[in-house]
Design a protein that fits this description.
Order of helices and strands: EHEEHHEHEEHHEEHEEH
Pfam family, one: BON
Number of domains: 2
Protein name: CBS domain-containing protein
Distance between the termini: 27 Å
Number of strands: 10
Strand content: 15-25%
Organism: Bradyrhizobium forestalis
CATH topology of the largest domain: CBS-domain
CATH architecture of the largest domain: Roll
CATH class of the largest domain: Alpha Beta
Keywords: CBS domain
Radius of gyration: 20 Å
Largest sheet: 4 strands, mixed
Number of helices: 8
Length: 242
């Protein structure tokens, strides 16, 4: 399998000038752990993630280094720490020049890049434009949904996936972080919904695409006020049976 067969196409982005507070609120509201950073020309310039908010002065978690270590590292490191802990804009805390992949990158290479660079997500680029993102969650979904003795995805499966995503993304009920995996005409839907009626709409949208044989629902429901998180009924049944 390759990146385009599992990636999330709807990528949530911010700009370098987006405030830290706004970026944190977007991540909480959209239930994502990282955001791509795009400049005014649409070019990828960085990635900001949950890890960039761990060492912050507001919550008293700034890095504390001993005098001897500060002497060894020099004032440059202390200056960088200060900017990261007190910066007000995304550009001051983001990882710039992030590792990227293309739509044709094989899953084995994706895993290798994640492990080698100690990252949890990789932007998918076409030229210098972001067209998707592959996270550890996408890989987990691929394993959970497709660990079966069935053929690799075909060209028809890719077309089915594209048509399902195109149909859903036109609607305001489209799940956040929508991911669609298709193999041998069998569809696995995952992502976050905040309205239970969106679940049936998503299933119907997939069922109406020509070539679809069956739809598996892995959409989780999240209450935006309390943060309560519920798995799909299908996944709950599988968990009880295992």
């Amino acid at each position: 399998m390759r990146a385009h067969q599992i990636m999330t196409r709807s990528v949530i982005s911010v700009t370098p000038d987006t405030s830290i507070v706004e970026a944190a609120n977007i991540m909480l509201k959209r239930h994502v752990s990282g955001l791509t950073v795009i400049d005014n020309s649409g070019k990828l310039v960085g990635v900001v993630s949950e890890g960039d908010f761990i060492r912050r002065s507001e919550i008293g978690t700034g890095r504390k280094r001993g005098r001897w270590l500060r002497f060894i590292l020099g004032p440059g490191t202390s200056a960088s720490d200060f900017v990261h802990e007190h910066g007000r804009k995304v550009s001051e805390v983001m990882t710039d020049s992030p590792v990227t992949i293309t739509e044709d990158t094989a899953l084995a290479e994706i895993v290798d890049l994640m492990e080698r660079n100690n990252v949890k997500r990789l932007p998918v680029v076409r030229g210098d434009k972001v067209v998707g993102i592959v996270s550890r969650a996408n890989l987990l979904q691929a394993v959970a949904g497709l660990a079966r003795e069935v053929p690799d995805p075909t060209a028809d499966d890719d077309h089915i996936r594209s048509r399902i995503i195109d149909t859903m993304e036109k609607n305001d009920w489209c799940p956040f972080g929508l991911n669609v995996i298709v193999r041998d005409g069998i569809v696995h839907l995952s992502g976050v919904i905040t309205e239970e009626r969106a679940r049936q709409a998503a299933i119907v949208a997939a069922e109406n695409v020509e070539g679809v044989k069956k739809v598996h629902d892995h959409l989780c429901w999240v209450d935006t006020m309390s943060g309560v998180y519920l798995n799909s009924p299908e996944d709950d049944e599988l968990a009880k049976a295992s």
